[in-house]
Design a protein that fits this description.
Elements: E1 13-16, H1 28-31, H2 38-45, E2 49-53, E3 59-64, H3 67-76, E4 82-84, E5 90-96, E6 102-104, E7 107-110, E8 115-117, E9 130-133, E10 138-140, H4 142-149, H5 168-181, H6 186-192, H7 197-201, H8 204-229, H9 239-253, H10 258-270, E11 282-287, H11 293-303, E12 308-310, H12 315-320, E13 325-327, H13 339-347, E14 354-363, E15 366-375, E16 380-384, H14 390-393, E17 396-401, H15 407-410, H16 420-432, H17 436-457, H18 470-479, H19 485-501, H20 504-525, H21 527-536, E18 545-546, H22 547-558, H23 569-578, E19 582-587, E20 591-595, H24 597-607
Helix pairs in contact: 5-8, 9-10, 9-16, 10-19, 17-18, 19-20, 21-24, 22-23
């Protein structure tokens, strides 16, 4: 009756009465029976049900109650032991170090000291629990299991017997626990709980039992939090190994330009360290339809630190969400009414950008308002088809995606949660994730030392930094390429990460090419530069020219069509004045000007 996969000495089981779901023995969580215990076997033989206790041997059980999700989970996780419940749900078994119990919108994760009814048992409705997938129980990195349940997380608590408690007493227990967490006194809690039916009609025994149970759970959660904060790192973060693994994953699922694989992999690694940097670039994928942008964003979401994929974005999500944001179909952000959102995106690539919101709170004198402050700085990856407006584009590292004709890639399904190569890289990241703090000092000190290096290198008053030190060698390499200004601000974190990954020279070369392309694009797309170019190519003379005639000639220079409303005479007149390209002006049946052609030629030397 007990599946062979569970017949191992490290697993434990509990006794449940016939056609029931809850254990009946006291302290069943700690008393658990081994699979070959005579008491358990005799109980099953006589028709009793039994439960499989989560936690022992790192056994975790995902209990799916939502019938609309059953087919999806049957399809996605048929590579591990799976049980069909008597009610038509699923019990899916994993081995994992993730040990937090959760109530989910689709069921529960029973990770530790909670049980699921075992196969062969009889549901209260008379139906049997049956094996659906008789596979070996697979091992999942804790990040992988957390990623599976993340879209369905809720904040409710699981009751002591392991079943979701939706009864009146369960509601009162959860409310009691919530007020303890809010640090309310026992006296106040007892008074407020009088508003609940069962509490108000029960004696002190029920009240004390409910309160004490909630307080015990509160202490357990508090201890877990403390232990987690004290957790000793499992090993160093293996930058080079993880970088190679990420490239392998990207090449397996995506057909990209060769240089993109390494750059994207470095960026993904950086999401685990982005708080070490004063700024972190956005990734922007400008992609034609069918180029695989959604697949690539899905991969980045799955592999990055606390990744979340969105098809629409609001202000609240941007400043209340933590972790990496991957935004698909980004065109909607440019629509009218999203001005505030665009302003937030313009500052979220750099530390220090904050949002303040008013929050209602209760006080002694009634309702009051306090200011809440939110940090918007976070790693962001963006994809769309129609391009990016100039200000936001200036915060991005842009990559062009094209449609692939490689069927070996385009025919792959996106089975990220079950992919062995993704599990491998997730496991490697997990083992080194505890050492992030130890690397922080290197990134912060190296970044802070850059300005000293620049001043020292360009000052005759200061001595040149020692070229034998490791940081100076790194600085020298960065200084020797033609990247500065905003481009350097964006790429500097990636240079430091690339140095750790052993691919600094490669990323320096890629960044130089991207920066060159960006400058060329700015030259040919920015209207101010195009106006400089137009004026610089005119013959020098002292003749007045009508601004309207200049606009007509400038439109011909740009190749504008008649239906194009921009540029127009008004814009050309204002731009010529703003750029100081007017030597003299007068009014005669409209504005007339003498152009400063010499200045336009000098400006074009800067751009070229």
């Amino acid at each position: 009756m007990i599946p062979k996969q569970l017949q191992k000495p490290e697993f434990r089981f509990c006794l449940i009465r016939k056609q029931s779901k809850a254990p009946y023995e006291k302290d069943w969580q700690n008393k658990g029976y081994s699979f070959n215990d005579s008491t358990l076997l005799e109980h099953i033989k006589e028709g009793g049900n039994y439960g499989v206790i989560g936690g022992y041997g790192n056994l975790r059980i995902l209990d799916i109650d939502d019938k609309t999700k059953v087919d999806q989970f049957k399809r996605d996780y048929d590579n591990t032991l799976m049980i069909k419940t008597g009610s038509g749900g699923l019990h899916i078994y994993f081995i994992s170090e993730y040990e937090t119990n959760h109530v989910l919108s689709i069921g529960e994760l029973r990770a530790k000291n909670y049980q699921c009814v075992g196969t062969g048992s009889i549901h209260p409705n008379g139906k049997k629990y049956e094996v659906l997938s008789n596979k070996k129980i697979i091992k999942l990195p804790k990040e992988m299991l957390e990623a599976i349940i993340k879209p369905y997380l809720k904040t409710e608590t699981i009751s002591v017997d392991g079943e979701k408690d939706t009864s009146g007493s369960g509601l009162e227990f959860r409310r009691c626990l919530a007020m303890i967490t809010e640090k309310k006194s026992r006296k106040i809690i007892y008074k407020e709980m009088q508003n609940y039916r069962k509490w108000a009609s029960s004696g002190d025994d029920y009240k004390n039992k409910t309160y004490n149970k909630a307080y015990d759970i509160h202490l357990q959660e508090k201890e877990k939090k403390i232990e987690k904060e004290k957790e000793i790192p499992k090993g160093d973060f293996q930058f080079k190994k993880i970088h190679k693994q990420l490239i392998n994953v990207l090449k397996y699922y995506c057909d990209l330009k060769e240089e993109y694989y390494s750059l994207i992999s470095v960026w993904i690694i950086g999401t685990y360290f982005h708080n070490c940097f004063s700024s972190y670039p956005y990734l922007y994928f400008n992609a034609m339809k069918g180029s695989g942008k959604s697949r690539l964003l899905g991969l980045i979401t799955f592999l990055s630190k606390d990744g979340a994929k969105l098809t629409s974005l609001t202000e609240a999500v941007l400043f209340r969400e933590n972790g990496t944001l991957c935004i698909d179909e980004f065109e909607s952000v440019g629509q009218k009414g999203n001005e505030s959102l665009r302003e937030l995106l313009n500052i979220a690539y750099k530390k220090g950008g904050k949002v303040k919101r008013m929050k209602k709170v209760s006080s002694k004198v009634g309702e009051d308002h306090v200011i809440e402050e939110f940090e918007v700085y976070r790693p962001i990856a963006i994809a769309n088809i129609w391009g990016m407006e100039e200000v936001l584009s200036d915060r991005c590292i842009e990559m062009i995606l094209e449609r692939s004709n490689k069927s070996i890639i385009t025919k792959l399904i996106e089975n990220y949660a079950r992919s062995s190569i993704i599990m491998d890289v997730s496991s490697t990241i997990s083992k080194g994730n505890g050492s992030v703090g130890s690397v922080r000092a290197f990134f912060e000190d190296t970044q802070d030392g850059w300005n000293n290096y620049v001043i020292s290198s360009n000052s005759s008053m200061s001595s040149t930094p020692s070229k034998s030190s490791k940081s100076s060698i790194l600085y020298n390499k960065i200084n020797n390429i033609n990247v500065d200004g905003r481009d350097l601000e964006l790429f500097l974190p990636l240079y430091l990460l690339a140095d750790k990954c052993g691919v600094l020279n490669e990323i320096l070369s890629i960044s130089t090419e991207i920066t060159k392309e960006r400058k060329e694009k700015d030259i040919y797309q920015a209207k101010d530069v195009e106006l400089y170019d137009f004026v610089s190519q005119r013959e020098e003379n002292n003749d007045f020219v009508k601004v309207g005639e200049l606009n007509k000639q400038f439109r011909e220079f740009l190749g504008s069509e008649e239906k194009d409303k921009f540029p127009n005479t008004k814009w050309v007149g204002i731009a010529l004045k703003r750029l100081k390209l007017i030597r003299e002006k007068k009014r005669s049946n409209g504005m007339m000007v003498i152009l400063n052609i010499e200045k336009a030629k000098e400006k074009m030397k800067m751009f070229k």
